[in-house]
Amino acid sequence: MRHIPHRILFAALILTGPIWAQMHKVAKPEQVVRAVGVYEWTGDFAKPTASRLIPVSLFIDGKLEDAGIYVARPVPFALLSGNVYELQTAGIDKGYLDLAYAKHLQAVEATGDLAYDDGWFGYGSVKPLAAPKKAAALKPSKTLPVLTGSKGDTSHQADAKISTDASNNDDPNRPTMKRRSDNSAADASNSGTPSASTTSTGSTSADDPDRPTMKRRSDSSTSDTTTASTGSTPADDPDRPTMKRGSGSTDTSTTTSSTPNTTSGDPDRPTMKRQTSDTPTTDTGSTTASAPTPSDDPDRPTLKRHSAEDAKRAHDTNSVAGTGNLNDDPSRPNLHRGKPTSAMTETDLPKLVGIPQNLHQMVAVSDAANRDPHPFTLEWEDDAQHKTVLAKMQAMAQAQLAAYASPGTKPPAAPPAAAVKKTTTTTRTHRATPTPPSILLSDEELKAYTLSYGGAATYVYSAHTAGSGAALRYVTIVAQDNGLGELKPAIQSVTDAAHLDRTPLMRFVDVVDAEASNRASLLFELRGQNARQFGLYRVIASHSEQIFLTGTTQ
């Protein structure tokens, strides 16, 4: 019998289990439409000499599409006029690019710099970021607050007179709270005019005729006799709103003549009725509101940001068709300072041709939603850390260049320790592998990033040798820290200027969050001899994966 209480407790827990359970609510997945491009310009960033936008990727419906050809009818979706791109550096906005027009170019020459001018390009004007508003500095008030009582005493004077001044209790205007007796309540309800006792004790709050009271309404109070006798109650106010149930067969004229003071007989009173299937729909405004146009669809993907006024105008179903605000007129003339971006032409926005020497590149991101910035740059702890990482990346680059110079050989590994055998006859020693001569590198760049929250440090190194033709070699190294202070290479690329068609140059552009997932990918330009592509690479645990690649410009 000792086990019976335990079994009863176990059964009770099973029965009460559903009470403790919580309902799991699945939120609607966010619809992300995000375009990524590369903005190229020459000259100053604020006032470039020539510029252009190259579309790269478009993340829509949960996958990456080629932004240069997606929904080209005839202009691609990512290059529509009016799209706004955020110009970023490692996830931080530096300015805005307002697209004015797009053009599809065809290469005139098969070789040279003009061979790269093939495909869709966008052109627009750069706008700086809005300066943050400075908060006004707080200033001390010149007048100090003073609390004045009913006697005109200030706060410090009233505190001094609380214990000595007893005249406040005799103030006739001082508000008091008293309980009302049953006899006084009965007298007030039976008499419509104040009695003598009420007049004599008019200073009390209970006998005030203007004092609001709450009473229970009896069934007989609706009759005419009771209404006439109690004409001072709020129920007889002709302007008092009332709610009554009206029947469908009640005639409006009869009701108006019999009860002219009721609100149900008002011919101008608005009413709400359910519409039946037999009732014809003749209201133009309701017809327009019930059949929204495709531009008013909230789920329609777009890259343009809409303001609150645009959203209100699109979803306002109470507006009458044919009338509205004068600002909504598309033919209404607008006055602008300067020339609007939509009216700019090639003369106002000079096109960038070929690949000049002083070419600058920056990531451009267009998203319909406003998202918080996510900086991906990893700051160096000190100069010593920068020198240590640079030395390790240079060693990897030197090994790759040495292996590229002698095809068929692997990069030299660390020489093993010489084994010494203790014998009575002879002792053999192994010669160490000679270290390859160091190659002079130019234009070295080392950048550090954190590609995700709490992710490992990722380093991108690029350099090239001196010379021309086959002697001019380019090296690109991407490595990650394994958490033990060691760098593991994820991407290693070496090529020369004479064989770019075989192995393109991996020119690092920047890191970018192409999917709005707070995880950055590496954006590279794969430049060949007469064509180029752009690719996105994801690096996780020192392993790289190419997640997207655009088509060639030929």
From TrEMBL:
Residues 144-346 are annotated as: Disordered. Residues 317-328 have a biased composition (Polar residues). Residues 208-219, 297-316 have a biased composition (Basic and acidic residues). Residues 183-206, 220-235, 246-265, 277-294 have a biased composition (Low complexity). This is Uncharacterized protein. It comes from Tunturiibacter lichenicola.
